[in-house]
Amino acid sequence: MTTESHPGLRERAAAALIAARARTAALTDPVTDQDLTAQHSPLMSPLVWDLAHIGNQEELWLLGRVAGRESLHPEINPLYDAFEHPRSERPKLPLLGPAEARRYAAEVRGRVFDLLERTPLEGSALLDDGFAFGMIAQHEQQHDETMLITHQLRRGEPVLTAPEPEAPYEAPLVAEVLVPGGPFTMGTSTEPWSLDNERPAHPRDTAPFWIDTVPVTNAPYEAFIADGGYRESRWWAAAGWRQIREHGIEAPLFWHREGPGDGQWLRRRFGVTEPVPGDEPVLHVSWYEADAYARWAGRRLPTETEWEKAARHDPATGRSTRYPWGDADPTPAHANLGQRHLRPARAGSYPAGASPLGVRQLIGDVWEWTASDFLPYPGFRAFPYREYSEVFFGPEHKVLRGGSFAVDPVACRGTFRNWDLPVRRQIFSGFRTARDV
Predict the structure, then answer these.
(1) Which of 48, 61, 71, 214 could form a disulfide with 36 if both were Cys (CB 3.0 to 4.6 A apart)?
(2) Is the pTM of this model over 0.85?
């Protein structure tokens, strides 16, 4: 692909960068400087670190590696190296203050737009298809999701607002869908802004399996709790059982009872306390919790391969599409993405986003835990740096797929792979279950 044959590529890159920065502002402008510099949880960075880190990565990759320019402030580069300083230690660093961080990010962005106007989007692996600019837009959006997680962990009055999901809805739906066995193509070699762990496209084969039509919702998860799910070790992996016992975990993160005993379940959501909605996908559960629920239900988590086959394989054509609904980019009719809402839509929403087999809400709403460890595909090549994916490969991390309401479309595809430790609960994670035929 060249900029001449695809004249809209430069405009697409600019639009992606503008959208990401607008979202960054929406997450950082409404809070006080004290909130920006505070660490709201040892699991997360102060918001002001994310703000300057976004600018720093943009500078290092686009102004540095693409344009070959000297660093504007080389003394701060080590402060914003995510691998040099754990999140719990970042508040102790001499970070840029809120005003300085905003000025720095704005200065970098102005120079990047100048670079984008005159740089040929071809001739190197970083520039072909505008990859470097797309990578940076995705990086900023990923940190926007991280900052939204910090907002969820933050205590105090609500500062974020968004309309409620009003997606088209169809119910009742069949509980599960049969995915036929056989080969399909997993991953991609053609998606221009795909990241290294999504590549290359390669054949996979599956036995037939059943998969939930929609993600598991709060009502059946409440039934799991009521049936003693958190009190019986038989449902839990050994490490998961130790985790919930050591930390006194009895329900998804942010849930609590209304009053003593068996009162109504309530949850805290971005500073608002509300009843847990029964028909909404369950949120803020760890891999261990998802795995335990699946065992209790007599089912299992789908493998990553099964998830992608359910999401991309079209049995009528044999093709693997970009998204469950086809190759077109997502619209608000397809999926709950981009922080348009601050919650998942109820199960059964977005019929236009269904896969050819009728599986719903595979994209958006909640990240879905799979049974699989995060491993490279056959033929994997780290690009443009090992620290994006390669250093995380192994059994320590489990794969999540599909994105959440907090994910922007630029960072969400049918091939997109997320990963995290199986204990993580603050992320916008849910799951669906599967079973063998």
Answers:
(1) 48
(2) yes
